[in-house]
Design goal:
heterodimer; A: mainly beta; six-stranded mixed sheet; 0% helix; B: mainly beta; seven-stranded mixed sheet; four-stranded antiparallel sheet
Chain lengths: 113, 121
């Protein structure tokens, strides 16, 4: 199984501050035949189901604010929130869908200072 | 508008069975793979199972393999999860999720609100 790790476990940033979350996979999730990274990012707010933010590691889902961006390839990925807003308070998860079982990272809790 | 509504959860004794259903609307159900994901109290998200639109293959997490069965009825736009030999560690909120295309190997772009399954004596 591919093991996903995330860092930090939690972060507290000021409004307008840049926030970054790292995600690492225990093996590459880059599929060479199509050059796509099988990596998604989800946002989970309290009392709500997860929401897809980013897929293919860097493609923003429709309707997601452009302050959210994804980057990375192979085994190392980053979710960046360019200007933290109050509504971004949530837990963020990365997930690989390269191989079954599709595993999630443990999550990163984002709070406002 | 895509809608996914889970039902069938509740309290069950260890060793018991439950069948979860997920009624889908707002998209061509048979064209999309569907999955189940759960979240135990105080824990993170755990992928459980996925099935392609055709329903001809199924895939499971090791933690549920041999006990859970995912299926779908495309004529009823409904996804199922038959859960047998339930254990305390299966206690979780179960989410049904739509994959973003026909392949299983995609992210999940829509999720239901979730249904609580509690396994306890």
């Amino acid at each position: 199984d591919i093991v996903m790790t995330q860092s930090p476990d939690s972060l507290a940033g000021s409004l307008g501050e840049r926030a970054t979350i790292d995600c690492k996979s225990s093996q590459s999730v880059l599929y060479s035949s199509n050059n796509k990274n099988y990596l998604a990012w989800y946002q989970r707010k309290p009392g709500q189901p997860p929401k897809l933010l980013i897929y293919w590691a860097s493609t923003r889902e429709s309707g997601v604010p452009d302050r959210f961006s994804g980057s990375g390839s192979g085994t190392d990925f980053t979710l960046t929130i360019s200007s933290l807003q109050a509504e971004d308070v949530a837990v963020y998860y990365c997930q690989q869908y390269y191989s079954i079982p599709f595993t999630f990272g443990p999550g990163t809790k984002v709070e406002i200072k | 508008e895509v809608q996914l509504v889970e039902s069938g959860g509740g309290l069950v004794q260890p060793g018991g069975s439950l069948r979860l259903s997920c009624a889908a609307a707002g998209f061509t159900f048979s064209s999309y793979a569907m999955s189940w994901v759960r979240q135990a109290p105080g824990k993170g998200l755990e992928w459980v199972s996925v099935i392609p639109g055709s329903g001809d293959r199924t895939y499971y997490a090791d933690s549920v393999k041999g006990r859970f069965t995912i299926s779908r009825d495309n004529s009823k736009n409904t996804l199922y999860l038959q859960m047998n030999s339930l254990r305390a560690e299966d206690t979780a909120v179960y989410y049904c999720a739509k994959q973003s295309g026909g392949s299983c190997y995609l992210g999940s772009d829509y999720w239901g609100q979730g249904i609580l399954v509690t396994v306890s004596s």
